[in-house]
Design brief:
Elements lengths: L1 E6 L6 H12 L2 E4 H11 L2 H11 L6 H13 L6 E5 L5 H13 L6 E6 L2 H15 L6 H25 L2 E5 L4 H17 L3 E7 L5 H12 L2 E4 H10 L3 H11 L6 H13 L6 E5 L5 H13 L6 E6 L2 H11 L12 H23 L4 E5 L4 H16 L4
Parallel strand pairs: 1-3, 1-4, 2-3, 4-5, 6-8, 6-9, 7-8, 9-10
Length: about 400
């Protein structure tokens, strides 16, 4: 998700650049004034509260503003992102926006400030006044507006400057040159967004082979706990011996073994576009761990794939797999297969349910040939890929 706050004094050309950003990146425009008017018109609870305050000559509180903002964002879960115009106006509102973004598992990518000297702003607005017929486009009013903008905006700019996401743009350049500068800022921010996909599905659903194919198609780093654990077993390490015994018992590998391997994999993968996780997280605890690891790298889960296959078909596949060199230790008997499936049902299904309330979970019918299932997964990823931009 791409979230931008666009600032600029009167006459900076903010309206023109806003239109460009909204159209190019398919963003939803957020103006607190527009949102307030809509809530009042709709007669919502918040709208009624705001109307009562305005009718008494008061200013609508930040408490109402933030609720309206949260409502707007949550009502558009499939949005590419949002363009904030005129918000935040104060340092307190800056803190509010920062907290709201964290709560909604996103962030403000950048505050872009189109900066123009006062005399040029005055000149542009006076020229506009000659054709617009606006009574407020006279020099006295213009200078008052510019003075008020500078007074209120400077603390906000400093707030985001300290957080490293304030980007000034020279507004004295031509419209196209300013547009190019803004595009470069946005594209650089977008390049930081990793595509992180989690593959879910019962053992035998095909998530491993599909995960490898998806990783190749989208240029992702394939992170499979099974492969890393098998390497430990193959190398005969002490950890590998523990893993082998746990495998034979048909149980899940404990977190004190899995997590260090996952974190090491992520930390040593430089210059990748993202990761595809297979076999992790398998428990609620691991889901929180993965969120924390990704957060440390300024990233998060982008897409969740849940491949669903009928239980009888799963057992048939696992039994067939046990007779090949791709068989897992728990494939060796029906009892172990059933035990592993029960582990998934009890511990991993709750993880998927948790993610459904927070992320975009694509449920994929896995009962088809490999290419058909692969196409279904790709369609689900491509449909949600706009959210990564």
């Amino acid at each position: 998700m791409l979230n931008i706050a666009l600032f600029g004094p009167p006459g900076a050309g903010k309206g023109t650049q806003s239109t460009y950003l909204i159209e190019k990146y398919n963003l939803i425009y957020i103006s607190t004034g527009d949102l307030l008017r809509k809530e009042i018109k709709d007669g919502s609870r918040l709208g009624k509260e705001a109307k009562a305050i305005i009718e008494q000559g008061g200013l609508v509180s930040d408490e109402i503003i933030v609720q309206i903002l949260e409502k707007t964002i949550t009502d558009n879960p499939n949005a590419n992102g949002f363009l904030f115009d005129g918000f935040p106006r104060t340092t307190i509102q800056s803190f509010i926006l920062e907290g709201l973004m964290i709560q909604l598992h996103t962030k403000l990518n950048c505050l872009i400030s189109i900066e123009v000297p006062e005399e040029l702003s005055v000149k542009r607005l006076l020229e506009r006044g000659q054709t617009s017929g606006r009574t407020d486009d006279n020099e006295t009013v213009i200078r008052n507006r510019l003075s008020e903008y500078t007074l209120k905006t400077l603390p906000v700019l400093n707030f985001f400057r300290e957080r490293g996401n304030y980007f000034p743009v020279d507004g004295t350049k031509t419209i196209d040159e300013v547009r190019t500068c803004i595009s470069q800022i946005v594209e650089k921010e977008l390049s930081k967004n990793l595509m992180n996909i989690v593959m879910f599905g019962y053992p035998g659903s095909g998530r491993g082979s599909q995960g490898l194919a998806i990783a190749k198609k989208y240029g992702l780093e394939y992170v499979a706990t099974g492969k890393m654990l098998d390497e430990e077993v193959k190398n005969g390490t002490e950890v590998g011996k523990r893993i082998e015994k746990i495998y034979n018992d048909g149980e899940l590998i404990p977190d004190d073994i899995v997590v260090p391997l996952i974190e090491k994999k992520i930390e040593h993968s430089e210059g990748v576009r993202g990761f595809i996780f297979k076999g992790f997280p398998r428990t609620l605890v691991q889901s929180y761990i993965l969120d924390g690891i990704l957060k440390k790298h300024d990233s998060s889960i982008s897409k969740i794939i849940d491949i669903q296959v009928d239980t009888l078909e799963i057992i048939r596949r696992l039994d067939k797999r046990s007779k090949t060199d791709k068989g897992m230790p728990y494939d060796s008997s029906t009892e172990r297969i059933v035990k592993r499936l029960e582990e998934h049902r009890k511990k991993t299904i709750p993880v998927i349910e948790k993610y459904k309330s927070r992320h975009d979970v694509a449920v994929i019918d896995g009962e088809a040939d490999f290419d058909t299932v692969f196409e279904r997964i790709c369609n689900a990823i491509d449909t949600g890929a706009k959210n990564l931009r």
